[in-house]
Design goal:
The protein has about 600 residues and is an alpha+beta fold. Among the domains are: about 160 residues, 2-Layer Sandwich (Uridine Diphospho-n-acetylenolpyruvylglucosamine Reductase, domain 3); about 110 residues, Alpha-Beta Plaits. Helix content is about 30%, strand content about 15%. It is built from 17 helices and 17 strands. It has a 7-stranded antiparallel β-sheet with strand order 14-11-13-12-16-17-15, with helices on both faces. The chain has a 4-stranded mixed β-sheet with strand order 1-2-4-3, covered by helices on one side. The longest helix has 18 residues. It starts with about 50 loop residues before the first strand and ends in a 15-residue tail after the last helix.
């Protein structure tokens, strides 16, 4: 039997024989591997998948695309859905926490932790698309790009399209309630989930569907729905959402779930789905997903507009939403300046902001007409110049500016490190100029270079501070910047997580933007759904003492990874191949 450990605490298991020897002692504020090791955390009885407790395997899963590095106790790769149930039962029995993970491409550190990593990436089967119902069922490990390709083969598509779409998993998208550029028209992932096969914290597996009652005979399901009803009945609805914010993946969607029940008290399946999407693996683990689809667009057109002021660009972004644009993306001056320094082709010079927008139509002429109308709206809003493309190659060239961010930022290493710790703020649209100006000012006061870009049509932007980690005061400047931007977001009525989730990164920051009443409702819900704290403990709701800046993988003082893990993770980041199976670095035959 596995040695019992407290949920969310370091494992009391020792290193495997090939990883013997003490880990490097962590310095304050860096990665915190287990400080002591006893007997190895053994494979749970009945588990048939891959189980690894050796140091190299754990190092391979100690980080993802975000800033965190946390050494897990072990790594489990389930063979099937029954295996997931076996793990959950073992976690409850033996007292360890499970951290579900797909590609590990999330930014908020929701897929790392000191418990047991549950790599669901191999549950990736995509079933035949139901053309008549416009739905598809797949495993949580299916890549978003693969699902969309399967749908397009029969004239349909999955319209939620994050920039990580080529390598993120469907399970991860549902868990974080991912969104992306085309949320402007199609909404977030939650809106497209028709069903989830879940393993609840007691190990029971059941389907939850939007068109059926919630599964009966599961006390945890009943307790979660009761928690929703109680919160909805006793709290003002304004306390359970950020009014005016168009994208939200922070906290639990208690308000939205209660609204479903208010509309139809019998719609318990839909209410539970609303709650589970965006719950980041803290209320259930997903073993299958059923998605809604829509027909492919007849034609598209893309516009690029330049502006001399941020306010004019913001006004134009609101016009894009009103005009029915599919997407409207902002490249702020901070992004343009960095791109110009790297001689990136096609970057407009001497402007304050750029918008890249997309429209759709039933056919090419309709798309061109829509582009003309949107271009006129941009001009009325003060655009200096508008460029339109309606052919695939030309459209791709315009969008390449938006997708240039990550390669540009990667080139600035090793001295400057892109650390996404304030990267997901979303505010009411009319406050977007105040937010961007506030972030610019905060970067200046922290004497830190940074780039701002993202989804202007939703007033949701990404911020990538570029920290000079050779400066002795870089951690103080990082913390000051985090504090100032959190205060700014709260003051503007925004959320810290528009589409990436809270993870561990933002869990301790939630009281900055959520009321004490909302935080209590969140804790009551978590207790109802996971009374044993076995499901992603410490995500969304922080453990006492958690600090968002305590596990930074870019910290020069962090204990080094072993050679195999270091080289494998560096290659994954360089190639943006987050979906690459980590254990292949140890044994390609696995």
């Amino acid at each position: 039997m596995a040695a019992p450990i407290s949920p969310g605490s370091p494992a009391s298991g020792s290193l495997a024989p090939e990883a013997s020897g003490a880990a490097a002692a962590p310095r304050e504020g860096v990665a915190r591997p287990a400080p002591a090791f006893g007997p190895a955390l053994e494979r749970p009885s009945g588990f048939r998948g891959l189980w690894r407790a050796d140091l190299t395997a754990r190092e391979l899963y100690s980080q993802g695309a975000g800033i965190a590095r946390v050494l897990p106790a072990a790594v489990a790769v389930p063979a099937d859905a029954d295996d997931v149930s076996t793990l959950v039962v073992a976690a409850r029995r033996d007292g360890f926490s499970l951290i579900p993970r797909g590609s590990g491409s999330g930014m908020a550190a929701g897929a790392v932790g000191t418990g047991v990593i549950v790599d669901l990436s191999r549950l990736q089967r995509i079933e035949a698309v139901d053309v008549h119902a416009q739905r598809v069922r797949c495993g949580p490990g299916a890549l978003r790009g693969a699902v969309d390709t399967a749908a397009r083969a029969v004239g349909l598509r999955f319209p939620v399209d994050p920039s990580s779409g080529a390598f993120c998993t469907i399970g991860g998208m549902v868990a974080a309630n991912a969104a992306g550029a085309r949320t402007l028209r199609f909404g977030d992932t939650r809106a497209w989930v028709h069903g989830l096969e879940c393993v609840f914290a007691n190990g029971v597996r059941a389907w939850v569907r939007a068109d059926a009652p919630a599964p009966e005979g599961i006390p945890l399901v009943r307790a979660m729905l009761d928690a929703v009803r109680t919160a909805g009945r006793t709290l003002d609805a304004a306390l359970l959402s950020h009014r005016g914010v168009r994208k939200e993946s922070s906290g639990y969607a208690i308000g939205a779930a209660h609204a479903v029940l208010q509309r139809d008290a019998q719609a318990t399946g839909e209410a539970l789905l609303t709650l589970l999407a965006g719950s980041e693996g803290t209320l259930a683990l997903f073993t299958a997903v059923e998605l809604r689809l829509v027909p492919v667009a007849g034609a598209t057109a893309t516009l690029l507009a330049t502006f001399d002021s941020l306010d004019r660009a913001t006004l134009a972004a609101m016009a894009a939403r009103d005009a029915g644009a599919t997407a409207c993306e902002l490249l702020d001056r901070t992004f343009l300046d960095v791109a110009a320094q790297r001689n990136t082709p096609g970057i407009p010079r001497g402007v304050d902001a750029v918008l890249i927008a997309e429209v759709e139509g039933e056919h090419a002429a309709a798309a061109r007409d829509a582009a003309i109308l949107l271009g006129r709206a941009f001009t009325r809003a003060g655009a200096r110049e508008v460029t339109t493309a309606s052919h695939a190659g030309a459209e791709k060239a315009l969008w390449s500016l938006r997708h240039a961010a990550s390669p540009i930022l990667a080139q600035l290493a090793p001295r400057l490190r892109s650390m996404q710790f304030i990267e997901d703020g979303c505010v009411p649209p009319e406050r977007l100029p105040d937010y961007v100006r506030g972030v610019r000012g905060a970067l200046t006061r922290a004497d830190t270079l940074g780039v701002i870009f993202g989804h202007a049509g939703d007033a949701h932007v990404h911020v990538n501070p570029l920290l000079d980690v050779t400066r002795t005061d870089w951690r103080d400047r990082t913390r000051a910047l985090l504090d100032e931007v959190c205060d700014l977001t709260a003051r503007l009525g925004g959320t810290l997580a528009g589409e990436h989730g809270d993870g561990r990164l933002r869990a301790s920051l939630l009281p900055r933007v959520w009321s004490s009443e909302a935080m209590t409702a969140f804790r009551v819900l978590k207790q109802a759904g996971d009374p044993w704290s076995v499901l992603n403990h410490g995500v969304k709701l922080a453990v006492d003492g958690d600090d968002p800046l305590m596990t930074l993988r870019h910290d020069p003082a962090a204990p080094p990874l072993g050679a195999i893990a270091h080289d494998a993770l560096a290659a994954i980041e360089r190639d943006r191949a987050w979906h690459r199976f980590r254990l292949h670095a140890i044994d390609p035959t696995l």
